[in-house]
Specification:
This protein has 161 residues and is α+β, with helices and mostly antiparallel strands. The chain has 5 helices and 5 strands; from the N terminus they run ααβββββααα. The protein folds into 2 domains: 8-126; 128-161, no CATH class. The chain has helices at residues 8-31, 44-47, 109-123, 129-138, 149-160; strands at 50-54, 66-72, 77-83, 88-93, 102-105. 17% of the residues are buried.
Length: 161
């Protein structure tokens, strides 16, 4: 439940803890082959809203593309972001209270191990980061700042390998 009188920074630790508890329950059930799921949470497949690629420069000052495991949308919203190279971030944002209020945490310890396992499972179903970025560019979904030709040539050279 959202408390409109507190910032995302003040709420994020509790939100992350709750998400990790849910994911731990659902992932364990999934790994055990339980198709019934949890009576309140449902199944692992039903829990998240989506898993998609976010292109570089979708937002200003966002040079890296990432895969997003979106858990909720609206006010508040939360998601895990998986970057090339293995970095994982959890974002909690409340766009209703303050249009630019958000907070980020990097999972640690057993939480990091669990979300890393889920990340690996999810990433097995999608194109590589380079393939996703190139496909998005070719589809016209985004443009690189200043149409960096050297970078585009690098992507094309990788395809030729």
């Amino acid at each position: 439940m959202s408390n409109r009188n507190t910032s995302c920074e003040e709420r994020i630790n509790e939100e992350l803890e709750g998400r990790m508890e849910d994911l731990r329950i659902l992932w364990d059930l999934y790994c055990e082959g339980d198709e019934e799921g949890h009576p309140e949470l449902g199944t692992f497949y039903e829990y998240g809203l989506g898993f998609d690629y976010i292109c570089p420069y979708t937002w200003e000052d966002q040079p890296d593309g990432y895969y997003r495991y979106q858990l909720s949308w609206g006010s508040p919203s939360d998601e895990f972001r998986f970057y090339e190279g293995g970095r994982i971030e959890y974002w909690f944002m409340d766009w209703f209270m303050d249009w630019f209020d958000g907070a980020c945490r990097i999972p640690r310890g057993t939480d990091l191990a669990l979300i890393g396992e889920i990340r690996d499972w999810l990433l097995d179903t999608v194109p590589s980061f380079d393939e996703a970025e190139k496909a998005a560019y070719e589809a016209g979904d985004f443009q690189y700042p200043n149409e960096d030709e050297d970078y585009l040539d690098e992507l094309e050279d990788e395809d030729d390998d």
